[in-house]
Amino acid sequence: MQCASFFNVLVLNKHLFIHKMKIFLYLLLTLVCGCIIGCTNSNEGYRINGTTSQSRLNGKKVFLVPYGTRAYEDSIGVDSTIIKDGKFEFRGNKGEFLARVTIDMKHRHGTQDLLIVTEPGDISVVIDSVSSATGTPQNEAMQSWKDLKENRDRVHWNQSQHIKYLQEQGDTVYAKSLADSLRNFNNHFIDQVHGLMRQLGPGTAYNLLLQRYGEPNQ
After folding, report:
1. Residue 21: its pLDDT value, please?
2. What crossing angle do the helices spanning 137-168 and 172-200 adopt, rounded to 10°?
3. What are phi and psi of 94, to 5 degrees?
4. Which residues 6+ apart lie within 8 Å of 155 measured at CB?
5. Whole-number Å distance between alpha carbons of 115 and 52
6. What pLDDT score does 43 carry?
7. Looking at residue 213, what is its pLDDT?
8. Closest residue by Cα to residue 92 from 64, 133, 125, 126
9. Which element (helix H / strand E) includes 183?
C-alpha cells in the first residue's frame, strides 16, 4: 500500500510538473510573440510604390537619393531599382529622411525629380513630366506645397517678364502697379505655406519648409 501511495504521488507530481511547464512555455511563447509584434510595429518602414506612363523607361534605373550634403547622402546610402512594366518599388526602414526620386541621368530628360519624406507607410509616387506623391500625411502636405510653389513660380516668372517689358517701354506707373500686385501674391503664397506648416506640426517636411519660409505666425 505504501509503495502504491508513493507511486501515485510520483505520478501526480509528474502531471503537475508537466502542467506547470505547459503554462510556462505558453507564457514564454506569448511574451516572445508580443516582443516580435512590438518590434515590427515600432520599426515599420516606408514602402514606395512608383509608376510611370513613359514606356521608354522600362528596364531603366530609378534612384532614391537622400536629400542633403554628400556626407549625409553617404551616411544613409542611395537605393536603386529597375522599372518594370511601368512600375517600381522601394522598401526600407532606415528611418525618416528627405529623399529625391530620380531617373538614371542618361534617361532623365522628360521626367521631373520628386522630393518625398520616407515616413512609415505606403507612399504612392508618379514619375512623369510632372511628378507627384501621395499616401502619407507628410507627403500629402509636400504635394500641396509643390502644387502651390509651381503655380507661384509660373505666375512670378510671367509677371516679372511683363514688368520688365513695361519698364523697357517707359511705362513705369503700370510696371510699379504690377510689381506691388506681384509682391502681394508672393506674400499670400508664403501665408499658404505657413498654413500647411501649422497643419503639419514638427517633422521632416516641416523642417524643410521652416528653412525656406521661416516660422509661421501662430
Report:
1. 60
2. 170
3. -85, 5
4. 182, 185
5. 16
6. 58
7. 96
8. 64
9. helix 172-200
Q: Euclidean distance between the first and final Cα of the chain, in Å? A: 88
Report the candidate in 101, 150, 151 with the shortest Cα–Cα distance to residue 128: 101
Whole-angstrom CA distances from 154 to 26, 27, 86, 132, 209 are 65, 64, 29, 18, 19
Which residues of the chain have a pLDDT value below 50?
1-12, 26, 30, 32-42
Contact between 155 and 172 (Cβ < 8 Å)? no
- Residues making up the chain, counted from first to last: 218
Distance CA 47, CA 199 (A): 24
Report the pLDDT value the prediction gives residue 148, as an integer from 0 to 100.
97
DSSP symbols for 54-74: -GGGTT-EEEEEESS-HHHHH
Q: What per-residue confidence (pLDDT) applies to 24?
A: 54
Cα separation, 185 vs 190, in Å, equals 9
Report the pLDDT value the prediction gives residue 15, as an integer from 0 to 100: 52
Task: Evaluate whether 208 touches 200 at the Cβ level (below 8 Å).
Answer: no
Task: Provide the pLDDT for residue 57.
Answer: 97
171/187 Cα distance (integer angstroms):
25
Query: How far is residue 159's CA from residue 167's CA, in Å, rounded to a whole number?
Result: 12
Give Cβ neighbours of residue 78 (< 8 Å, ≥ 6 apart). Answer: 63, 64, 65, 66
